[in-house]
Amino acid sequence: MTETPPRWIANILSVLCPEHLKDEIEGDFIEHYHHLRNHKNKLTADRKAFGFVLFSAPKLISQRKYSSPNHLDMLKSYILVALRNLRKHMAYSLLNVLGLAISLTACLLIGLYVYHEFSFDKFHKDVERIYRVNMGFNSSQGSETIYLTPTAVLPALKREFDEVEEGVRLYYIGGFSAVTVQKDEDVNQEKQFFYTDSTFFSVFDFKLISGNREECLKKPRSMVIPEDVALRYFGSVDILNETLKVNGFDYTITGVLENIPDNSHFQFRFLSSFSTLRQAKQEIWGSANYSTYVKLKAGANKNTIGQELANKVNEQLKNDLGGYSLDFELVPVTDIHLYSEIADEMQPQNSIGYIYVLLIVGLMILVVACINYMNLATARSMERTKEVGMRKVVGAQRIQVFNQFMGESTIIVLLSTILSLILASLVLEPFNNLAAKSFTFDTIISLEVLSVLVLIVILVSVLAGAYPSVVLSSFSPETALKGNFQVSRKGSFTRKLLVIFQFSISLCLLVGSIVVKSQLSFMQNKRLGYNRANVIVLPAGRFVTNRYEQIKTALEQKAEVTGVSIATESLVNVGGGYSLDVPGMLDNSLSVNAVSTGIDFIKNMELNLLAGREFNAADLVNVQVEERDKRKYAFVINQEVCRNLFLDPLDVIGTKVSLNGREGEITGVIEDFHSTSLHRAITPMVLFVEADYYNALFVRIQPENIQNTLLALEDTWKELVPEQPFIFEFMDDQYDAMYRAEERLSNVFFVFSTLAVIIAGFGLLGLVSFSVRQRSKEIGVRKVLGASVLSIISLLNKDFAKLVLVAFILALPLAWWVVNSWLQDFAYKIELSPVSFILAAFILLAMAVITVSFQSFKAANTNPTETLKSE
Amino acid sequence: MKGTYLGEFEEIILLTAAVLEEAYGNAILEEIELRTTRKVNLSAVHSSLHRLEKKGFLKSRKGEATPVRGGKRKKYYAITPFGVSALEDIKKLREGLWSSISPGLLKKYNP
Fold first, then answer.
1. From the candidates A26, A31, A62, A66, which should be mutated to test the interface with B, based on the most B CB atoms within 10 A?
2. What confidence tier does A278 reach under pLDDT thresholds 50, 70, 90?
């Protein structure tokens, strides 16, 4: 009986030992073991046997490379062949890699943007329980929802509902007019200024660096500021109990916050205690200027709370509401940024629609680049038929060839991804400007981004690589090797289809770009009914209002100034909502927008008076009577109000009306003007004089030499109102700012449609040069028979022009439907003319013709002897 | 000469392979253990044999399979002329050195 080594040791050796050494090593090993067992006991023999395996292992493993070819070797060969192919066809590879890299860059950046948009407000603890209370007015005229509520809503909620854990009110004073913040000589106008309840930090999770979370917003005139503001004013964050002058009053710093995350739906630089305001002490239902946020207990139902609150409030205020009823809705705070349906948010928000548009655009660009890859790979397949045939002859199965070409697409996609990371970091700066974001290189190479990129690499490799791999692996070796293999008609048909698809996408993007741009310029150039050119708007606080007459006289003395006026708000975007009662004519009150103005406002704004008179000095005197019920107001209305009263402008003069309790009569009618963004139709509008308070001062200046005028005005201003810095906005800019979203969309469309066209151009370039090469003999024969260069160029162009035409017909209905539904958002919009579509088609056609001609010109100029000499 | 350098263990393996008629791993191992009484590891023998073959001092052929080897064939090694000349070189070197030692010294320690 021969003693054999323990099976497990033998197995290890058998696995380690390369095939060609098995006889010697294993044989010697078994024999050696047998020998040992004859002289020693089993334990020693086993130990020695194991020692042998252990000592031999490194050498045996290193010898394995001499083993027979395996999968690893094939993979190495595939990669080698792929890289050789890339190098050999440098131009194709560049087109492919560059096209894919550009589109991946676009997708990467869009992805970053979208991810950031979806992250809004998610940093608060228990954010799913935080809601904002929106208030809706319903009347016979319709309903309107605003994000503002009266001061009384929060106390009512806390009293009546156990489910409300905590709540906070915000008063965005900066939304009405900027606040003057002063530190010694350093005077600034600040807009992002909020007053808020001391419970702020029990609802929202902004991190305090110093100060007490519960106490810091309790005392009147205490203030919490974020780090960047602290550094801006004090150059330090160690500033507890320091003071800042706010509109002339000393406010104490009671806390410093970490910088406000830029994915918070409200951005603030100053947060002051609500107890500073006298409104805080009263529960008023009358004026809605405060946004109310609540944190509910887990499991509470937001809908019933809103419903019950509305019932209670409507019951309680039955007599004061007139024809109105109120409703309340609790909206999740995370929905505000993207899903808010309120047109006039506290600060500008985005909309989910734009996010979807962006995602679709990004996807389209990726598809265009993938199609490029598919087309170039299948078009070039002819050159690789011999390789495929050879592989199959020596035994490759179809799946192996398929895997090989999938691997090649993966390599190309991988290269593009690396390039796209580089590209993305290069264009990060302009992209941040375009999208109003602040991404850094670190964001790009973060783990999330990279892991998503890996997914994209896999996805795109499959998307772009599957079709060519199927085609290439389907070649049968005998036809492939016979020599005169022609790419099938079916292949070129698919290619044409893909090109048409690609062109359709580019066309849709181009049409979108053109239409958005023309709607934007339509809005920017629309005659509004007042003249917004050359008007500068200054915030008018206490200091300006008190000295208004003096300021007006001083400024109007200047030759550069053509007029000065004052009002509660700028006509660019009128927010103030009032209700107008017309006794004897209307049963319910009419909800109107109203602006309280100085007496020369109509003239200064160049509003067009249709009937009656402008305001005069007597009107001002009449409203300054001590006893409130003896005051007599003068109202100037627009045509829309007349239409609601079913009266002619001339007949309406003298009608007795009351505006939120202000008694008076209509003294004038002005032509309708656009008092808000062109998304919305013109509303009933009332102007009236009331010497109470104003927010904005308007100075109309001469259009020439604006720079010098502003410098001169600044000097005068410093003498007149030393407390307030000369910081102003142009009315034009205010107006344009309303269309930031559209402007951004227009830019985005422009950039991405350009990219799509360029990438499609890359693909076309590759296809044309391929088709030129394939038809080189045909071109040669044609030239020999007397064809001119021009006729050959047009021969090649015809094929591709046809594709553009087909794409145009296919894309037309889709593009029309998309832009038309986008335009439905606007009350005032451009007519959709065929010009936009034809222009888009023309741009694409021009791109195609230039690309094709560029390639075919070379071919048409080749001497036919070159192409025909070999057969 | 780096390529033809022979280590002490390699020299012994090479000499043993020259001594034995049928020199395969186990035979060499047993021969060395017999003559030197030192413990030799089989894996060391294998790696030296492979190294010597690669350097061209040894050549090999496949031999017969035996039941005691689990049916595996032996691999016989035989010295090549190059191997012989390498051994001779070493021997010459040693002899040269031996002859250069003064006879008095050797007598002193090895009477």
1. A31
2. confident
Ranges of each domain in chain A: 7-66, 148-300, 352-523+740-868, 535-736
| Cβ atoms of residues A470 and A399 within 8 Å | no
In this complex, which of A26, A28, A56 lies closest to B26 when CB atoms are compared? Answer: A28
Which residues from A are below 8 Å from B75, CB to CB? 23-24, 27
- pLDDT at residue A853, rounded to an integer: 87
Among chain B residues, the shortest Cα distance to A56 is held by B43
Comparing CB atoms, the residue among B24, B41, B50 nearest residue A55 is B41
Q: Is residue A187 within a helix (H) or strand (E), and if so which, with residue range?
A: strand A186-190
A23 with B66: Cβ contact below 8 A: no
Gap between the terminal Cα atoms of chain B: 37
* pLDDT at site A66: 53
Place of tokens 């036809």: A479
Q: Which among B43, B65, B70 has CB closest to A56?
A: B43
Q: Which residue of A has its CA nearest to B25?
A: A28
Q: Tell me: ipTM over 0.90.
A: no
Residues with Cβ < 8 Å from A654, sequence gap 6 or more? A665, A666, A667
- pLDDT digits 0-9 by tens, B19-60: 988 889 889 998 998 888 888 888 889 989 988 998 889 999
Q: Which residues of A touch B46 (CB under 8 A)?
A: 24-25, 28, 56, 59
Distance from CA of B22 to the nearest CA of A (A): 14
Cβ pair A29, A5 in contact under 8 A: yes
Which of A368-377, A448-457, B78-87 is the most confident on average?
A: B78-87
Q: What average pLDDT does chain A have?
A: 86
Q: Does B93 touch chain A (CB under 8 A)?
A: no
- Going by their DSSP bridges, the two strands A142-146 and B58-65 should be labelled as unpaired
User: What is the rounded radius of gyration, in angstroms, for the C-alpha atoms of chain B?
Assistant: 17
Q: Which two tokens stand for residue A751?
A: 């950039």
With a cut of 60, say whether residue B14 has pLDDT above it: yes
Task: Tokens 């030692």: give the residue.
Answer: B101
All domains of chain B in start order, with CATH: 8-109 (1.10.10.10)
Q: Is pLDDT of B77 > 60? A: yes
- What six digits make up the tokens of A527? 């005659």
